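A.,

Following up on our hallway conversation. Structure tokens first:
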């Protein structure tokens, strides 16, 4: 036993594997020092970036979603499964020790000279401890372990990506529901104004001051406006149900939303293009996939080298139970073997080709993810720039449309304009209000997209648990 156990310390040392070191594969394009759409300052997005909106109701809903969202729980379960896979691969580098008890009883008949046929019974009792171990002399098993660890890191980065996506979805759904509530208010205001106009037209029609055409047109306009209110009611319920699903609630359209869309956006976050390569969860995930593929290529090449294995056993064997604990009956053996591959029909070479092809695919996917990430940031910056200008124009439209509506109403009741001009101006006014609300919500969504595109709420230091440290270039 001592002869076998003295091998364990060096075995455990050799069996230890570390994750593949971080690398930054080529994206295939020159990454500029600053964003082309808008020059952002240096720095990183705060981990709790959604609190910059200053809405405590939103903060509470995001906390609820992080606790209860089924998709996020499913993503977390994949981390546990990947951890079990790593432990399984690591066990392949450890000694395989088995204990056994063997018993046997035998009866035979032999012909002894002078004694005739005699029955002889015998029994054998043995207690054994068996050990087998492949010495990872070249590092093939360690390369497989590194690949498994990198896979787990990729899945954990995927979880953080799902978490970031969930936070962004909840924030956008919250503001979308708030916009739907505001749009419903605009539609109700429009209905109230239309009904007031209808009443005045009806009174003047009964007095013979306006023709029947004006009254019929006013009735039709009021009916269309009531239909718009129902549409806004429906959209508001849909928006709340969408938010409730993200929260993990039953979709009863009862969640409370904000009464407004806020007046001011939080300051634009900082961030540089190069920082995105170590900040975005999906890019970190893609890089870990490349690292895992690289380790598998190395393991495939090392599989061409000879393997050295040790097998050993120790135990006690006797034909008497009382002797099993007697050291005189101690037996042991220790064997070593060298197995060198000579011919396998091209299986190992085919595995090398397969792993190299997968590595090329992982590199291409990394470049695709990185380019998409850069586009996400540039698009978010461009959207915010143009939406701000659009919102400024709509502010002017709302203000001037309101003035025009007051003028047309006065002129209509003075008999200077027909009813169609009043209805047209009124529709323009409330349409401008609705468009302004939609643009305001789109501006908030663009800012949320920017936070998410910059990797807000994700810190690559989570990989330090495995000895990997990412440094911003």
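Then the amino acids I'd put at each of the 473 positions:
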């Amino acid at each position: 036993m001592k002869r076998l156990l003295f091998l364990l310390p060096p075995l455990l040392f050799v069996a230890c594997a570390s994750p593949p070191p971080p690398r930054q594969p080529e994206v295939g394009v020159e990454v500029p020092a600053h964003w082309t759409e808008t020059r952002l300052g240096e720095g990183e997005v705060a981990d709790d970036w959604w609190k910059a909106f200053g809405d405590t109701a939103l903060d509470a809903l995001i906390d609820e979603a992080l606790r209860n969202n089924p998709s996020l729980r499913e993503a977390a379960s994949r981390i546990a499964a990947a951890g079990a896979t790593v432990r399984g691969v690591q066990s392949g580098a450890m000694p395989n020790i088995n204990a056994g008890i063997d018993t046997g009883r035998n009866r035979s008949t032999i012909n002894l000279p002078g004694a005739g046929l005699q029955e002889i019974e015998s029994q054998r009792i043995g207690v054994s401890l068996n050990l087998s171990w492949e010495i990872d002399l070249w590092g093939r098993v360690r390369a497989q372990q590194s690949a498994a660890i990198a896979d787990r890191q990729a899945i954990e980065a995927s979880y953080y990506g799902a978490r970031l996506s969930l936070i962004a979805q909840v924030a956008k759904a919250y503001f979308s529901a708030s916009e739907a509530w505001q749009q419903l208010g605009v539609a109700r205001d429009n209905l109230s104004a239309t009904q007031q106009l209808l009443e005045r037209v009806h009174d003047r029609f009964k007095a013979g001051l306006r023709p029947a055409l004006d009254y019929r047109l006013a009735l039709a306009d009021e009916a269309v406006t009531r239909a718009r209110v129902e549409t806004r009611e429906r959209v508001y319920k849909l928006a709340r149900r969408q938010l409730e699903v993200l929260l993990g609630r039953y979709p009863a359209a009862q969640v409370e939303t904000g009464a407004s869309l806020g007046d001011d956006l939080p300051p634009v976050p900082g961030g540089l293009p190069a920082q995105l390569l170590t900040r975005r969860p999906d890019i970190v995930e893609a890089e870990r996939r490349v690292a895992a593929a690289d380790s598998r290529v190395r393991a495939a090449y090392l599989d061409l080298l000879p393997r050295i294995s040790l097998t050993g056993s120790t135990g006690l064997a006797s034909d008497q139970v009382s002797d099993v604990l007697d050291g005189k009956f101690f037996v042991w053996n220790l064997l070593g073997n060298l197995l060198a591959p000579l011919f396998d029909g091209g299986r190992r070479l085919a595995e090398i080709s397969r792993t190299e092809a997968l590595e090329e695919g992982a590199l291409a996917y990394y470049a695709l993810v990185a380019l998409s990430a850069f586009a996400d940031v540039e698009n978010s910056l461009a959207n915010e720039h143009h939406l701000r200008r659009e919102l400024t124009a709509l502010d002017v439209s709302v203000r001037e449309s309101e003035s025009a509506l007051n003028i047309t109403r006065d002129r209509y009741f003075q008999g200077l304009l027909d009813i169609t001009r009043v209805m047209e101006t009124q529709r323009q006014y409330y349409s401008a209000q609705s468009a302004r609300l939609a643009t305001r919500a789109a501006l908030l969504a663009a800012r949320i997209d920017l936070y998410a595109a910059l990797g807000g709420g994700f810190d690559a230091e989570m990989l330090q648990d495995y000895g990997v440290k990412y440094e911003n270039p």
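The domain at 2-104+138-302+355-466 is CATH 1.20.1600.10 (Outer membrane efflux proteins (OEP)). Curious whether your intuition agrees with the design.

B.
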